Amino acid sequence: MARGQRPPDPGALQAQALLDVLRQTPMRRGALSRRQCQLKRDISTAIGAQGVPPELAQRVAFQLVFKLDLAEVGDEPVWCATGRLLRREIVRLRERVGLADRQIVAVLRPNPIGVYRCCEYEVPYVPQMMIDVLVADCHVDEVVRAVLDAARTGEGGDGRIFVLPVEEAYAIRTRVGGPD
Questions:
Q1: pLDDT grade, residue 7 (50/70/90)?
Q2: Are 151 and 144 in contact (CB under 8 A)?
Q3: I need a labelling partner for 8 at 20 to 30 A (CA). Which of 30, 58, 122, 169 fits?
Q4: Which one, of 111, 61, 119, lies nearest residue 86 by Cα?
Q5: Do residues 59 and 110 lie in contact, with contact meaning Cβ atoms separated by under 8 Å?
Q6: Are 76 and 46 in contact (CB under 8 A)?
């Protein structure tokens, strides 16, 4: 080891391996046993203590406990190292991409946690959005057809299209607008 270098943190190596496993496997949902619930709380607390937003810490802790065997999850030094790694990634996203913590957490929006018969489970979260498009009357049919073709998956929840007349429109900041 070169002079002035710190020895590698063994917890960081295991933490990186845990995060790699999480990233290589799809997100999962399901119920946790009482023991898993307590472990999730402990992991979440350790990760959050490293400066990771609580929502993200809880999400990562849930996935660690749910996807891995309890022996693979490690102990508190590994969880703290996981938190430090996540915090560095958050700082990089903030500095390089310009995202705020709330935006980073929103990308990884956790499913709401429900409790049934003393077990926690995730309620599936289906992201929804509303898109408003304002077009001239002569282009309405063309735009509706284009959206129908592009947005249709054949699954429930593809959405709806509403065609409404717009009599007037105003910009709030400049107060410019009117019937045109």
A1: low
A2: no
A3: 58
A4: 61
A5: yes
A6: yes
Q: What is the number of helices (H) and of strands (E) in the chain? A: 6, 5
What was the pLDDT predicted at 95? 83
pLDDT in tens, 9-47: 768 888 888 888 887 777 777 778 888 889 999 999 999
169 - beta bridge partners?
A: 178
50 and 11 Cβ atoms separated by less than 8 Å: no
Q: In this structure, what token pair is assigned to residue 166?
A: 């717009």
Regarding pTM above 0.85, the answer is no
Q: Answer for the pair 13, 78: CB distance below 8 angstroms, yes or no.
A: no
- Maximum pairwise Cα distance, the chain: 74
Helix (H, G, I), strand (E, B) or coil at 75: coil
- Contact criterion met (CB below 8 Å) for 54 and 48: yes
